[in-house]
Design goal:
Number of domains: 1
Helix content: 40-55%
Strand order of the largest sheet: 1-2
Number of helices: 6
CATH topology: Sufe protein. Chain: A
Length: 140
């Protein structure tokens, strides 16, 4: 599936709920469904700067595609990173770098997050793109 198809899937999933408490619950459920990150990846190098809570992000390249794993000590944040992984994991560095992540605005995520969580969301996206850039540079 393309990144845009995955984003449309997320938008459809969130559009089932009008109430933001239900949407928060969906985020929490997504975070809880995510496999825990192996302890070996919970390092300072994998810690995302700019997040209020602690978020570790691990990226691995396989057959020219990036696969992300992450964990956070905050349930909502864990759900947010799970969404980003759902949309971006399994794609090439170029696809990740060129993706317009319109789902964030369409599901109203940014406007329903506190300013610090919103900054954290931007930091997570930025870090995923930095990994994509690094893997792209390595493969040239």
């Amino acid at each position: 599936m393309s990144i845009n198809e995955l984003q449309d899937e997320v938008i459809a999933e969130f559009s089932d709920f009008d109430d933001w408490m239900d949407r928060y619950q969906l985020l929490i459920d997504l975070g809880n469904e995510q496999a825990p990150l192996d302890e070996q990846y919970k390092t300072d190098e994998n810690l995302i700067e700019g997040c209020q809570s602690r978020v570790w992000l691990q990226a691995d390249e396989k057959d020219g595609k990036l696969f992300f794993q992450a964990e956070s000590d905050a349930v909502i944040v864990k759900g947010i990173i799970a969404l980003l992984i759902k949309v971006l994991s399994g794609h090439t560095p170029d696809e990740i770098l060129n993706a317009d992540l319109y789902f964030i605005d369409r599901i109203g995520l940014k406007e329903h997050l506190s300013p610090t969580r919103s900054n954290g969301l931007l930091s997570m996206v930025k870090q995923m793109r930095m990994y994509a850039l690094a893997f792209k540079a390595k493969s040239v």
